[in-house]
């Protein structure tokens, strides 16, 4: 709900915005208490074990959402995936593993999950030329800016580096700001012009 409110301020009339809720599940990092989560999070360091099964299942769920929109008459190359934190991580992972050609990815305050599972060098999939807007606060205590920096370097080795934009925001923590939302709006309007 929070993100649908944030998007309300930057909506373009010709674009449909879908904000799916993550399912509620126990999260290891949260002492196994149930919370909305796309997949389990075991730790927040670069060498933490990752929930590979959960990440792959969540990506399949996003691909099913894309399929539904394609059935509704929206070509997949007119779809941008986006998300914040775990949702941004899931958006990146899904875009890089799907066989559906997409218009772009908006990845906010996040990282690339299962990064070791990707080949060294460029990917061969349909989204090797995909446009990515990656944004991060320079004071993020939860997902440190270094995760964003490492992710952008990995992305530039996998897809056309000219299509990867990395923006940082001074003083921003694990949240969003007006300047970031304006950058998101500009990206969406550029990659989904009216037809």
UniProtKB/TrEMBL annotation:
<keyword id="KW-0007">Acetylation</keyword>
<dbReference type="InterPro" id="IPR050565">
    <property type="entry name" value="LYPA1-2/EST-like"/>
</dbReference>
<keyword id="KW-1003">Cell membrane</keyword>
<dbReference type="GO" id="GO:0006631">
    <property type="term" value="P:fatty acid metabolic process"/>
</dbReference>
<keyword id="KW-0378">Hydrolase</keyword>
<keyword id="KW-0443">Lipid metabolism</keyword>
<comment type="subunit">
    <text>Homodimer.</text>
</comment>
<dbReference type="InterPro" id="IPR003140">
    <property type="entry name" value="PLipase/COase/thioEstase"/>
</dbReference>
<protein>
    <recommendedName>
        <fullName>Acyl-protein thioesterase 1</fullName>
        <ecNumber>3.1.2.22</ecNumber>
    </recommendedName>
</protein>
<dbReference type="GO" id="GO:0008474">
    <property type="term" value="F:palmitoyl-(protein) hydrolase activity"/>
</dbReference>
<feature type="domain" description="Phospholipase/carboxylesterase/thioesterase">
    <location>
        <begin position="1"/>
        <end position="191"/>
    </location>
</feature>
<comment type="function">
    <text>Acts as an acyl-protein thioesterase. Hydrolyzes fatty acids from S-acylated cysteine residues in proteins such as trimeric G alpha proteins or HRAS. Acts as a palmitoyl thioesterase that catalyzes depalmitoylation of proteins, such as ADRB2, KCNMA1 and SQSTM1. Acts as a negative regulator of autophagy by mediating palmitoylation of SQSTM1, decreasing affinity between SQSTM1 and ATG8 proteins and recruitment of ubiquitinated cargo proteins to autophagosomes. Acts as a lysophospholipase and hydrolyzes lysophosphatidylcholine (lyso-PC).</text>
</comment>
<comment type="similarity">
    <text>Belongs to the AB hydrolase superfamily. AB hydrolase 2 family.</text>
</comment>
<dbReference type="GO" id="GO:0005783">
    <property type="term" value="C:endoplasmic reticulum"/>
</dbReference>
<dbReference type="Pfam" id="PF02230">
    <property type="entry name" value="Abhydrolase_2"/>
</dbReference>
<dbReference type="GO" id="GO:0052689">
    <property type="term" value="F:carboxylic ester hydrolase activity"/>
</dbReference>
<keyword id="KW-0256">Endoplasmic reticulum</keyword>
<dbReference type="InterPro" id="IPR029058">
    <property type="entry name" value="AB_hydrolase_fold"/>
</dbReference>
<keyword id="KW-0276">Fatty acid metabolism</keyword>
<dbReference type="GO" id="GO:0005886">
    <property type="term" value="C:plasma membrane"/>
</dbReference>
<keyword id="KW-0472">Membrane</keyword>
<keyword id="KW-0963">Cytoplasm</keyword>
<dbReference type="GO" id="GO:0031965">
    <property type="term" value="C:nuclear membrane"/>
</dbReference>
<keyword id="KW-0539">Nucleus</keyword>
């Amino acid at each position: 709900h929070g993100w649908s409110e944030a998007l309300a301020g930057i909506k373009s009339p010709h674009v449909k915005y879908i904000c799916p809720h993550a399912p509620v599940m126990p999260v290891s990092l949260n002492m196994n208490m149930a919370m909305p989560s796309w997949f389990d999070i075991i730790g927040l360091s670069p060498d933490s074990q990752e929930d590979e099964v959960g990440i792959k299942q969540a990506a399949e769920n996003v691909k099913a959402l894309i399929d539904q929109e394609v059935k509704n008459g929206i070509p997949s190359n007119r779809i941008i995936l986006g998300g914040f934190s775990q949702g941004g991580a899931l958006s990146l992972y899904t875009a890089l593993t799907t066989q559906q050609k997409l218009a772009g990815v908006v990845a906010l305050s996040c990282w690339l999950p299962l990064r070791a599972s990707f080949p060294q060098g460029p990917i061969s999939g349909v989204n090797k030329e995909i446009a990515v807007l990656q944004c991060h606060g320079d004071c993020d205590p939860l997902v440190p800016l270094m995760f964003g920096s490492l992710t952008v370097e990995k992305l530039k080795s996998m897809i056309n580096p000219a299509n990867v934009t990395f923006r940082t925001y001074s003083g921003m923590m694990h949240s969003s700001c007006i300047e970031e939302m304006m950058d998101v709006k500009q990206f969406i309007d550029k990659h989904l012009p009216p037809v």
